[in-house]
Amino acid sequence: MSELVFIGLGLYDEKDISIRGLEELKEADAVFAELYTSLMPGLSIRKLEEMTGKAVKVVSRRVLEEEEGKQILEEAKKGKVAFLVPGDPLIATTHVDLRIRAEKMGIKTRVVHGASVVSAVRGISGLQNYKYGKAVTIPFSEQGFVSETPYRVIMENRKRGLHTMCYLDIKAEEQRYLTIKEALQTLLELEKQKKEQFVTPRTLVIGVARAGSPEPIVKAGYLEEVMNHDFGAPPHTLIFPGKLHFMEAEALITLADAPEQVRRMAE
Fold first, then answer.
1. Could you tell me if 133 and 154 are in contact, meaning their C-beta atoms sit under 8 angstroms apart?
2. What CA–CA distance (Å, rounded) separates 73 from 116?
3. What is the mean pLDDT of residues 170-179?
4. Which residues sit opposite 221 in a β-bridge?
5. What's the pLDDT score for residue 117?
6. pLDDT tens digits, one per residue of 38-81
7. How far is Cα 223 from Cα 205, in angstroms, rounded to an integer?
8. What is the pLDDT of residues 114-132, one digit of tens each?
9. Are 242 and 133 within 8 A, CB to CB?
10. What phi, psi does 82 have (nearest 5°)?
């Protein structure tokens, strides 16, 4: 039977895959994985292969985007293929496109979900999930060009009292991962241009490092303090809070080492 099963790997290492995901892997005729949409700091492909008895072929962004996943789809025509993805399989739009292509070719598709940075970071921050607005990615500044989109999204969400989750850019092939400090520096440069006072040294921000790992770091505080905090290795994520409920303020103080003044910001 032609089948393509999208399987979420979770957030940190090979142990994060679900029991259902492991069972699907063991039954697959071929296994592919992509590791460019997110960083799993503790993942060992060798250990995953030992756990399942299956060889795992890691594919690049080019295979999925430029070649439209043809080698994965060709294998799926012949039998059951498992496609491993960091986090939850369908957060990245690239994978939605692959699923659509498979279905149009008559290949049955299924999804085995995994823990996602979206829920992990929001949960570990102590902020209420339903109060988040549009999320945004802060990209690397390349050749002097700085995208204004992150600043605009933060500004629009703040005007509505909503929190903003900021993903930080990664270039896995180059092993480059944007840090919280670099992201905040970029936003301060945009503030100099915009002069809207939405991203200043006294803006409350939350930095999260390695969510889902045994030792994540969550630090809330004023931007100038958070920018100089030692978050250690990537992946990093940023949150710009909107209006705070009193319970959110308490969570930031208790769980994220925020200053006591945060209580005065709550409603």
1. no
2. 25
3. 92
4. 205
5. 94
6. 999 999 999 999 999 999 999 999 999 899 999 999 999 999 99
7. 6
8. 999 999 999 999 999 999 9
9. yes
10. -105, 130
| Distance separating the N- and C-terminal Cα atoms of the chain | 57
Query: Whole-angstrom Cα distance, residue 97 to residue 57?
Result: 20
Distance CA 6, CA 252 (A): 35
| Average pLDDT of the segment spanning 225-236 | 96
pLDDT digits (tens, 9 = 90+) for 141-173: 876 778 899 999 999 999 999 999 999 999 988
Provide the mean pLDDT of the chain. 95
Q: At what angle do helices 19-27 and 45-52 cross, to 10 degrees?
A: 70
* CA–centroid distance for 1 within its chain: 33
The vertex-36 CA angle with 71 and 146, nearest 5°, equals: 130
Q: Which domains are seen in the chain, by residue range?
A: 3-112 (3.40.1010.10), 117-265 (3.30.950.10)
pTM above 0.70, yes or no: yes
Cβ atoms 208, 120 nearer than 8 A: no
Structural tokens at position 262? 């945060």
Q: Vertex 264, ends 258 and 267: CA angle to 5°?
A: 110
| C-alpha–C-alpha distance, residues 157 and 163, integer Å | 6
Q: 70-78 vs 93-104: helix axis angle to the nearest 10?
A: 40
Q: CA angle 61-65-71, nearest 5°?
A: 85
In the block, residue with structure tokens 């303090």: 225
Question: What phi-psi label fits residue 57: left (phi over 0), alpha (psi between -120 and 50 degrees) or beta?
Answer: beta
